[in-house]
Design a protein that fits this description.
The chain is of the alpha+beta class. It contains 8 helices and 22 strands. The termini are far apart.
Length: 384
């Protein structure tokens, strides 16, 4: 036993001595990598860490940001101040002197959606602008022309004339689910392009009092003043929405932001580019969400729908026989249970094309043929 222990000790001593000599005199011999056919690590292919294409860290959104960011632009607007009512009053000039007001400036973001230079942004970003300048991430700048606006959805389409424009890829917002990761890209407070991340917090948000047609994507990705009109993208860098508004008590992000789905934005874009305006259906009613009190007042039971409290005289609904006190349950093949759903369903109808409405009147179920007209143009209060 002693001989075996002595032999073992001698072998270990010799191996330690050889290892020490190799570490001291030939350290490269210890770093052979059999996975690269005997090449040392200094000779083997390396993961890029500098001038070559970098490898994204696990969980990184860098590729999505890199794909979408070039197509997100900063928008600077200016408005020439109106002359005062008494500007030409000699007494006012005597007491107050000649005072020239500086043009007011506005800030927002936009998204390039076509090689022809069309840009989607918010209506409230350019609503009062006399001049619009668009800045790209590559340093180029250009004056923008307003092609058309849609106040009902708070969207506007601009156009710039530059070559080799980066274009964002349009995604499918209808595939979004609560909990999906998203990025918000824009120019908050004018500090420069900024990317923030979060998740989809809710879908189909409405009754916020922002637009006539509301179907917002809610996200907790940080959105601040200046982000309006910017991009909400998925982890593939595809456009999912146009960032529009935030809920805030301080003026900054509180984790509740809202974006217009790209499906809605695409419809507005196509309508404006093709026809110069967005064409929507209209029937001329005053709708209200159905409550137990209204159900009792209208003498309807066990129903879901939207109560009609007013009907425009000689309007499409009146001509079809819809009356105050009716409850609209279905527009064509689309059931409606809220005012927002009714507005969206009617807006999607083609003017002058008759559609069947299912209506509840007390204990009667009616099917009325309604021929919608084109929705009149409206101008909502400024969202600034």
């Amino acid at each position: 036993m002693k001989k075996l222990w002595s032999l073992f000790s001698q072998v270990v001593t010799v191996l330690l001595a050889v290892w020490f000599i190799l570490v001291t005199l030939k350290p490269e011999w210890l770093h052979q990598n059999p996975g690269f056919s005997g090449l040392s690590l200094s000779q083997a292919p390396q993961l890029s860490t500098g001038s070559d294409v970098p490898i994204a860290m696990p969980g990184s959104f860098s590729q999505a940001a890199k794909k979408a960011s070039p197509a997100v632009v900063s928008i600077n607007t200016s408005k020439v101040p109106e002359k005062g009512v008494n500007k030409n009053d000699p007494w006012q000039r005597f007491f107050f002197g000649e005072r020239e007001e500086a043009p007011s400036a506005g800030l927002g973001s936009g998204v390039i959606v076509s090689p022809e230079g069309y840009i989607l942004t918010n209506y409230h970003v350019v609503e009062e602008a006399d001049e619009i300048e668009v800045s790209l991430t590559d340093g180029r700048k250009a004056k923008a022309q307003i092609i058309g606006v849609d106040p009902d959805s708070d969207l506007a389409v601009l156009r710039i004339k530059l070559d080799r424009l980066p274009v964002i890829v349009l995604g499918k917002s209808e595939n979004l689910q609560v909990g999906d990761q998203v990025l918000a890209i824009g120019n908050p407070f004018g500090v420069g392009q900024t990317v923030t991340s979060g998740i989809v917090s809710a879908l189909g948000r409405n009754q916020l009092g922002l637009n006539t047609f509301e179907n917002f994507i809610q996200t907790d990705a940080a959105i601040n003043p200046g982000n309006s009109g910017g991009a909400l993208v998925d982890v593939s860098g595809h456009l999912m929405g146009i960032n529009t508004a935030i809920f805030s008590r301080s003026g900054g992000s509180m984790g509740i932001g809202f974006a217009i789905p790209v499906a809605t934005a695409q419809q507005v874009l196509e309508g404006i580019v093709r026809d110069g305006q967005v064409t929507r259906g209209w029937i001329g009613v005053e709708p209200t969400d159905l409550t137990p009190e209204l159900m009792q007042s209208f003498e309807v039971k066990n129903t879901k729908g939207v109560a009609i409290t007013g009907v425009l005289q000689n309007g499409p609904a009146a001509k079809a026989g819809i009356k105050p006190g009716d409850v609209i349950e279905q527009v064509g093949a689309t059931p409606v249970t809220q005012v927002a759903e009714l507005l969206s369903a009617v807006a999607g109808l083609k003017p002058n094309k008759t559609v069947e409405f299912k209506v509840r009147r007390k204990d009667q179920q009616l099917v009325l043929a309604v021929t919608p007209a084109q929705r009149p143009k409206t101008k909502p209060q400024s969202l600034r």
